[in-house]
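Entry 14. Ran structure prediction on the chain below.
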Amino acid sequence: MGKSLAEKQVLVAEIKDLLKEAQLTFVIDYKGLTVSEITDLRNRLRPSGAFCKIAKNTLMHKAVDGDENWQPMQSLLKDSSAFLIAGDDVASAVKAYKEFQKATKKTELRGGVMEGQALSKEQIEAIGDLPSKEELYGQIAGSINAVTAKIAIGINEIPSSLARAIQALSEKEAA
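Output, structure tokens:
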């Protein structure tokens, strides 16, 4: 038995709420996946703050209707669709999906939408190749640490250089 109108309205409202917080949503064809495999995908996405939402294309169409940021998604709504909704850490979400796809080889990435722009499969995979937020924080911290170390060495070197210059000058005068 299908869902009632009230249940469908609740589902559409839930999707709209998820999309308000999302930075990227990409669409996959999940045909052939078992319930345990979908659960595995959801578990892989969870650490990156992403969600896997399975809904009928008509319900997703109603959820994105009137929202300029998500309008390009309508061209991806066909066949059996699962929607992977990523928050701030989009690179980690795409990496988690790519790892899942390598393991199962059953899903197909159709495309996605980010900041109102339709993205191709290749563009989404390129996002997955970017460093994660934690890796970027580590790189920035390392750069800042290197700069402060160089400044400290430079400040420390000034008195030493001055002392060597005075020493050389006094040895020259003594000779």
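Residues 5-130 form a domain with the Alpha-Beta Plaits fold (CATH 3.30.70.1730). Will compare against last week's run tomorrow.
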